[in-house]
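ok so for the tutorial part 2 we go from a plain amino acid sequence to predicted structure tokens. step 1 is just haveing the sequence, like this:
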Amino acid sequence: MSKPPARLRLADAAFALFDERGYEQTTVDDIAERAGVGRTTFFRHYRSKEAVIFPDHDRLLDLIRDRLATSSHSTALVAVSDAVRLVLLHYVDEGDLARRRYALTSKVSTLRDREIASVARYQRLFREFIADWMGDPTQSASLRAEIMAAAVVAAHNHVLRRWLRGESPDPVREVDEAMAEVLALFPAPSGHDDGGAGGTTVVAFRTGQDLDALLPSLRRLVEGGTGAGHPQPGRARQGIEPAR
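step 2 — the prediction. this is what the tokens look like for a chain of 244 residues:
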């Protein structure tokens, strides 16, 4: 039976040693020795001891940029939701490794500080994208973009933490519902919606209700938005909400 890749062996060795000796007491040499490789191999895969713990944030940020770059004005918020889902799926795919990281960063303040700094990078990326989508250089628009980006990141982190604690059996469904809640708070910026030009806007989401039960609410929602270009902020929340 072939050995696991060196990168995975190093990660397993590192977390095992952190559990046994503590993070501060474990050295790079300890990790390399436990994994059965040399220092050179360690630094070929990781820049530092900290880098063993955290996911490749640079790669994840690049994935987000790529997804956001494929969007248009009309699909910008869909792209934001997709980007959030990409990040969540990365952690879910890591499985137990993500949970071990969560337990460790909860105990070690220096690692917790680095995690906070990483979250700020995601929020900045979403803020820049949303500000560009809004196309409004005013101070009020800049504040709105900041608030939207913070809400996007908070929704993702809320669902992620629930999954890490074993409280969410379906984190992808939960993050989709959380993003629907967040985006419903922020109507499209004036001048960028197509409601005044006619046509139909379709919003897709998951719900536990039967279609026949939903139709009256859908009809009220649509009728409430006609003649105004788009529904007023909060109107969608009065109609239909995703199943909890």
